[in-house]
Backbone:
C-alpha cells in the first residue's frame, strides 16, 4: 500500500500523540486536542486523579483529570502547556469501510509507533451493546489505548480503546466532541474495576472486581477495598461496566447503595456510598 506523503502524515500524528502514565503499572496514549494543553485519552488509562504526560519532544507534565466518562471510555486531562501541536478531528459520520486508517501510540514501551490498516465497519459490536465503534484491522497492543486512529490526511477519526479478536475498536471522533461539550454527566466513585464471571452456584453471575480504590475517594470513604466484587445497586444487578457508569450518571449529591462480595464471597454485603455533587467537570470512575 503506497500513499503519497505518508511519512509527513505519520510525523504530524506523532506530534499530537502523547504517552500517559497514570502511576503504578501500565501506561497508555493520548491525543493533544487543543494547543493549550487539553489531552483526550481513555478512562481506563487515566484511572486516578492525575497522570504523567510525555510529549513527542520528551517534555513531561503532570496532568490533572478534568472529566471522565466510563461509558464511552473517555477521559480529559489538562497540562500546563501552550503552543502545542494539536490534532484536527474529522467527522466520524463520514468514515466508510475500505478507508485507510493509521494508528499511532506507545505499545509495549515503543514510543510513537505507527501501524496502518483498513476500516472494516462503523457501528455497534455484538456483545458490547449499542455503542458505536470505528472498527479497523490495525494492530494494537497494550499502550495503544487512548491514542489516535487517523485518516490519510492525519485527522483523528477515533480514539483507540480495545481489541476484539483481530479487529481494533475505536471511539468515534464525534463521540469525543460530544464528551468535550459536557455530555458526560457522571460522578466519581474512585475505583478501577474489571469484569468477572461468578460461579454458577452463586445468585449473581456477573460482577466488577475492584482492582484499585483511590485514597480519599467516595469508595474509600465507604470502606470498599481492592478485591471487593461489586454486584449492582439495590435496584439493578450489573451485567457490564456500563451498568456501573449508568449508576453514576447525574451530578447531584446523593447516596448510591451498592451490593458487593468480600472475603470468601459467600455473603452479599451492602454499602451506601456518598456521591459528591458537582456543577461542572464531574469525574466518574
Residues:
Amino acid at each position: 500500500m503506497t500513499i503519497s506523503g505518508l511519512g509527513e502524515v505519520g510525523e504530524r500524528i506523532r506530534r499530537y500523540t502523547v504517552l500517559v502514565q497514570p502511576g503504578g503499572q501500565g501506561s497508555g496514549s493520548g491525543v493533544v486536542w487543543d494547543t493549550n494543553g487539553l489531552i483526550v485519552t481513555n478512562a481506563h488509562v487515566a484511572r486516578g486523579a492525575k497522570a504523567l504526560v510525555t510529549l513527542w519532544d520528551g517534555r513531561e507534565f503532570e496532568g490533572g483529570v478534568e472529566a471522565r466518562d466510563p461509558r464511552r471510555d473517555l477521559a480529559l486531562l489538562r497540562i500546563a502547556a501552550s503552543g502545542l501541536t494539536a490534532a484536527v478531528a474529522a467527522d466520524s459520520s463520514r468514515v466508510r469501510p475500505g478507508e485507510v486508517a493509521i494508528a499511532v501510540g506507545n505499545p509495549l514501551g515503543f514510543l510513537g509507533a505507527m501501524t496502518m490498516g483498513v476500516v472494516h465497519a462503523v457501528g455497534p459490536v455484538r456483545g458490547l451493546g449499542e455503542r458505536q465503534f470505528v472498527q479497523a484491522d490495525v494492530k494494537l497492543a497494550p499502550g495503544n489505548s487512548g491514542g489516535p486512529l487517523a485518516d490519510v490526511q492525519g485527522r483523528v477519526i477515533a480514539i483507540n480503546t480495545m481489541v476484539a479478536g483481530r479487529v481494533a475498536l475505536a471511539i468515534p471522533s464525534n463521540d469525543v466532541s460530544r464528551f468535550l461539550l459536557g455530555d458526560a454527566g457522571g460522578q466519581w466513585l474512585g475505583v478501577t474495576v474489571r469484569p468477572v464471571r461468578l460461579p454458577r452456584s452463586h445468585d449473581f453471575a456477573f460482577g466488577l472486581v475492584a482492582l484499585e480504590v483511590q485514597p480519599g475517594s467516595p469508595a474509600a470513604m465507604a470502606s470498599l477495598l481492592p478485591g471487593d466484587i461489586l454486584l449492582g445497586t439495590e435496584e439493578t444487578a450489573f451485567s457490564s461496566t456500563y451498568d456501573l457508569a449508568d449508576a453514576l450518571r447525574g451530578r447531584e449529591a446523593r447516596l448510591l447503595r451498592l451490593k458487593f462480595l468480600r472475603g470468601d464471597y459467600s455473603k452479599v454485603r451492602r454499602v451506601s456510598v456518598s456521591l459528591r455533587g458537582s456543577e461542572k467537570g464531574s469525574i466518574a470512575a
Notes: The chain has a mean pLDDT of 86.
